[in-house]
Prior knowledge:
- The chain is α/β, with parallel strands linked by helices.
- It has one domain (14-307): TIM Barrel (Alpha-Beta Barrel), CATH 3.20.20.140.
- The chain is built from 12 helices and 11 strands.
- The strands form 3 sheets. The chain has a 6-stranded parallel sheet with strand order 6-7-8-9-10-11, with helices on both faces. A 3-stranded parallel sheet has the order 3-4-5, with helices on one face. The protein has a two-stranded antiparallel ribbon with strand order 1-2.
- The structure holds zinc ion.
- Zinc ion binds at residues 32, 34, 71, 260, 262.
- The site of zinc ion (ZN) has 5 residues, from loops.
- GO terms for molecular function: hydrolase activity; zinc ion binding.
- It holds the Pfam family PTE.
- Residues 311-333 are annotated as: Disordered.
Amino acid sequence: MTPATAHGAAVPAVRTVLGDIAPEDLGVCNAHDHLFLRSPRLPGQELDDAGAAAAELGAFRAAGGAAVIQWTPYGMGRVAAELPGLARESGVRIVAATGLHQAVHYAPEVLERVRADLAGLFVAELTVGIGGTGPRAGMIKVAGGFHGLDRHARYTMAAAAEAQRATGAAIGVHLELGTGALDVLDLLCGELAVPPDRVILGHLNRAPDLVVHRAAAGAGAYLAFDGPSRAHHATDWRLPEALAALAGAGFADRILLGGDTTTADARSVNGGPGMPHLLSRHRKRLELALGADLVTQFLTANPARAFAAPWARTPHAGQTSPPGRATDAPATT
Ligand SMILES: [Zn+2]
């Protein structure tokens, strides 16, 4: 249950697959990663093995990790039913996502099925449960395009904004190759009036344009820097410099760090960097550039604030029942 004040107003909580927790209980957090993922764009590299997910979580826990935010959205093989058991057995807190990725990650009939009430789907997954019986999602994941936003991205973000208004959940955005951050903020926070501190921009390490980073942080959004990855090796080494610039400009409280393991080969249990790399190597490298206190802030206080939401009880953006009196919307698979 979400904690409530004496006046009945919900206080912020992080919605994990085992229930809502106080933000300060989140602990050392991998703010963007995947235990399960399936896409036609990554044939043969599916993350679909619960045993491998458990091993990777165990390795992350052994490296000092306490929480993982899985950014896998609707229809991409989240295997939501496995997440509570994995969280319980590993002792790692897990937050699941609702939302929708770029159209290229779906068969057309899947998009057709959810198109009529996308916001309703997101709200149901956040407030009732994934698939109606699974754990509740704790964030909304959407995606931009390369230096722009196509019709699918605009439609998806409009639905995300509606679900954000109804629930308070944070919106995490996949930026294609790290681009389009300001286009996303113009749409989400300009046209769609989402509070900037409810937006988490992902993959900015892939486009180390320090001016754009500073503009996005100045607008009030969170910036999630993830990786490293084989595909983005060309820019990964710029990360310490980018984070130092942001911190120096007064935006240390906007920075999140994640691993973003998207393929089986990238897992530590298969010889890749995987989730533990974030803490065993990446953290130490960043501490050399920024000092331990700042990096600890990126891994604990910042994600606790970014992913906490008041979890308003309004069940559906399209309904007008007063908070606390409305009934939950039915779950959609
Ligand atoms: Zn990701």
